[in-house]
Structure formats: C-alpha cells, structure tokens
Amino acid sequence: MRIVWEIIEYLVCFVETYIAYKVLEIFFPARNSRKKQKEMIILALVGAVVTRICNQISLFSYFTIFISVFYSSVSGMYIYRAKCIQVLSIISFYGLCLCGLDFLVMTTISSFYKDIDMLNYLLMEMSSLRIGVIFFTKILWVAIYLVLKKYLKKISFTIKGTYAALLTSVIGFCGFIFLAEQAMQIFNYTVPWVWFMFICILVLIVLVFYFMIEQQKEKTALSFMEMQSRLLEDKYKTLNDVYMENAKLYHDLNNHLNTLYQLLEEKQGEAAKAYIKEISKPILKLSKTIWTGVDVVDVIINSKLEKMEQLGIEADINVEYPSECNITPNDMCTILSNLLDNAIEAAAETEQKGCVCLTVRRINYLLLIKVTNPCSEHIKSFEDIPKTTKANKNLHGWGLRSVRDTVEKYSGTLECGAQDGVFTVKIMMQWEKKAKIV
C-alpha cells in the first residue's frame, strides 16, 4: 500500500510542477510548442523526483517549498528563455496560491474530524487520508487552472507589475508561514475561515492586478487609435497625391500626342524630341518604382522612395515578393510603411543621412524582410523592441509594436539590433499560396 501512496505522491508533485509550466506558457507562448511540451514533461518529472527526495526528510517543510519554487523558476527560464524576475514573480505567486489552497482544504478536513491533531497528522504522516486529501486538492487545482486560463491570457507583465507581484509573493509567504505555524500549534475551528480569508485576499490581489492592467490597456488602446488615425490620414493623403498625379498624366496624354503630331507634321523634329524629353520626366519617375505586384504596397514603397529623395537619403531597394501570397496587402503596408517611416526618420536625424536599405526575399515558404538605416551612436542594446525617444511616450513608439503584432499573425519573428551606428530590423514570416476559387 505504501508503494501506491508513494506513486500518487510522485504524480501529485509532477502535476504541481507541470501546471506551473503551463501557467508560464500563458505569459510566454512557446514558438516550437511540440519541443517545449517534451521539455516540460521531462523537467516536471525531474522536479517531482527532487520534491520527493526533500519529502523523505519531512513530508511538509518550508525548505521543500523553497526548493520547488527555485527549481520551477530556473527550469521555467530555461524552457521559455524568459527574464529571471518575471518567471520568479509568477512562480512565487503560483506557489503561494497552491500552498494556501492546500492548507484551506486540510484545515477544513481537520475541522470536520474535530481533532486538533488531525492537521499535523495530514501534514506529517503518510496515510490513505492524506493521499485522498492531496489528490482532491490537485484535481481542484487543475480545475481552477482550466477556468482561469482564458483570463490569465489577458494579463501582461510590465516592469512595475513584475516587481509588485514578487513583493506580494514575499509578503504573502511571510503571512503563510505565520498562519501555518499558528494552525499547527493552536488549532481551533476558526482556522479554516482564516485560511479562506487568506485565499480571498490572494484572489482580490489578482483581481486588482487584472482590472489595473485592463484599465491601462484601455488607455493605451485610445492612444493607439489616435496615433493610427493620424497615420491613416497621412497614408491616404500620400496615396491620393500619387493617384492624382497619375490621373493628371493620363488626362494630358491625349493633348501631348496631338502636340507631337502637329510638330511632326510641320517637320519640327528637334522641337518634337525636346517635347518628348520634357513629358517623359514623370514617366521616368514612375518607372523607378519597385514593384511587388501588389498595387497598394507598390505605392507605399514608391512614396517612401520619393520622401527619401526629398530628404537627401540614399535608398537601396531589393524586392522579391511571392505572387498569390496569403499575406494581405493591408498587413504588408503596415509592416513596410512603419519600418520605412522609422528608418527615414532615424536617417534624417543623422549628419551624413546615409542609406536606407530594404530587402525582401522569399526562401521556399518563408518571407524575409530586412531594413537597415543609420542611427545615433548612443543606441546600443535593448530587449524586444527599442523604446521611443520621442517626448510623448503614449502616442509614439507604436510602429514596431504594430509590426510585431502583424508579423505574429503569420507565425513570424521580429528582431531588432543596433551596431556601429546601423539599426537593423529583421523579419521572418511564413506564407502560403492563396487558394484558387474554382
């Protein structure tokens, strides 16, 4: 029978660690999910072994809790390549909630037995009752995880939020240790209610975090909409100018042909050549456009080239875009317009202006986009995407965020880097051929 108990204890430890990894997965989505799942299972099995070794000394100890939190944090950082402080804050709060639930269930069971020593018996002695209690607790814990999973996805950790969560966990563990010691020494029938209040406080903290983040998201969304409306207004103005210029060119084409016919009729060959040279200027200007085969995208690239020419910035454009691609023109415009706008603005602020390079290449079913531009030397390193250098932090700095969100729609990645005064953005996206409508 003891072997069965040991196996169940081992499975319980495995579930605790595995659910911890699944919680981390909500905040740090894995790119190679199949590989990550294998790593999670293997490391959860190892974590269960580590916990069971600690339990051989004592079935309940604060040292075991510390080791479990430490192991889950280190292994979680390895799996998701996330920051130490973020993983530690999440795992610490996870462990605090788990311990609180364990004690709530155990103190409730102890109060039903009306035995003041029952709590110590459940904590310190291997028995069928203990196995039943922890098995029930873990089923309840898995159910709570499944219910809260969709709500946890809405929580995003800022630097302040991360430190606040870690501080809450530290204070919470101090309160947990105090209440646990009191319950084990002087147990009475009000103890379950104390632990119930402890759980309620933890839930309240989570709700406060949730609503604060939602409120911040609403403010951010309003700022983003204001910024987006300005960008759309600028883009529509640019498109309108280009189309108006083309419309004027085609409208005047008939008059140009009539004029040329009259000059040739009058045998004024030199005058006809000069006239052709003059009217060819806008046509030559259009012929320099880098075509992707998508009209809207081509207009965006052409307008940015014209802007670079006006600012005295050199351009190096190389585009190989797949035909019948499932990447929508709107998404490509979002990516290219934001990247080129940022590149042009950064290059214009440098003394030498330099050259803005855009490269688009397809390798099988991967689309690679690379944009480089000169930048200030003080930009050295950063994580994820660089912070905006503009005064209004709410209305600016959204360009690369918008690009990143668009790229992630196509299971893509975005990398930014600055070295030797050159800022580089690299994008890799998956694309598919459009399904033909029969």
From TrEMBL:
InterPro entries associated with the record: HATPase_C_sf, NatK-like_C
Keywords carried by this UniProt record: Kinase, Membrane, Transferase, Transmembrane, Transmembrane helix
Pfam families linked to this entry: HATPase_c_5
SUPFAM superfamilies listed in its UniProt record: ATPase domain of HSP90 chaperone/DNA topoisomerase II/histidine kinase (SSF55874)
TM segment ranges: 87-109, 129-148, 160-180, 192-213
Single annotated GO MF: identical protein binding
Gene3D superfamilies: Histidine kinase-like ATPase, C-terminal domain
Protein name: Sensor histidine kinase VirS
Protein species of origin: Marvinbryantia formatexigens DSM 14469
